[in-house]
Amino acid sequence: MSKDIVLLINRSEITAGTRGASLGPDAIFTAARKNQKSFFVKYPIEEIKEVNYLLDRPTEYKFAKRIDGLLDVYNSLNDKVSTLLLNHKFPLVLAADHGSAGGTLAGIKSAFPTKRIGIVWIDAHADIHTPYTTPSGNIHGMPLATVLNEDNLPCKLNELSEDTIQYWEKLKQVGGIAPKALAEDVVYIAVRDTEDQENKIMERLQMKNYPVAEVRAKGVSTIMNEIETKLADCDSIYVSFDVDSMDPDLTSHGTGTPVKNGLRPEEANEILTLLAKNEKTVCIEFVEVNPCLDEKVNKMAEVTMNLVESVINTLND
């Protein structure tokens, strides 16, 4: 059954440690125009107001940089995504950095407060740090912790200011429901660059990761069948695709934190199209294309454009 797609653009890049991801969504549009792809013009485009002016100011939140602005982004996404879903739209999100993904998930939970949400997180990184455990203070490493309402205090490294604590609690509570999802309903694919604190919380919560080697050994279709079984009790599924899940040698280094030995673009395409075919999937998000870091002249955006096109075609089957 064809989905009523809306392209939702979020250019805020305030949670990353590098600059340029705000240009990612437009780089994907540029790649589409260069390759004479017209599929983007077929769908309505809506935008979240960006808050990148905060990058021009110092942040007082050492262990949660610009968390005050991120709270605004979360609230905006919560309102927009929930409204789209309640109007039977399919949000296909093109975002800058990964830090805002918790706001997308807040919107899904706000739309479906009694439903159980499954999460397929395709990424080189686990993104489950908290202000208490972060080595960098960059919140693009924390979105899943906001969704799971986790502080990971057993691995605490940092002493937080009272203001930081208050903002962190507000971030986790966006939409008025916390947690938004259960750890048992999160599946990682291709995660291969984690810190000790993340490893420990993943082990404590028994979170499943499919490393690239396992994807190849079993095959994508087998992995997808296992994920479908694991998430069988979920009512809705959200898919988050970070382009650094792919091998930079096969794509480019046009992303903030590239990691070797990732997925092949063909594997990513198969994974995403099978997830798009799943009737439970209600939202797919693409993040972290950064043309400023691309040594191959917008190659990452071109690869991502092809993936987006495949997802759109599948959603329209």
From TrEMBL:
Pathway listed for it is: Nitrogen metabolism; urea cycle; L-ornithine and urea from L-arginine: step 1/1
Q: Indicate whether Manganese appears among the record's keywords.
A: yes
Q: Might you give the EC number(s) for this enzyme?
A: 3.5.3.1
- Pfam families given for it? Arginase
InterPro entries tied to this protein: Arginase, Ureohydrolase, Ureohydrolase_dom_sf
Cofactor(s) required for function per UniProt: Mn(2+)
Record's keyword terms, sorted? Arginine metabolism, Hydrolase, Manganese, Metal-binding
Q: Which family does it belong to?
A: Belongs to the arginase family.
The family database entries (PANTHER family) matched by this protein are listed as: ARGINASE
What's this protein's name? Arginase
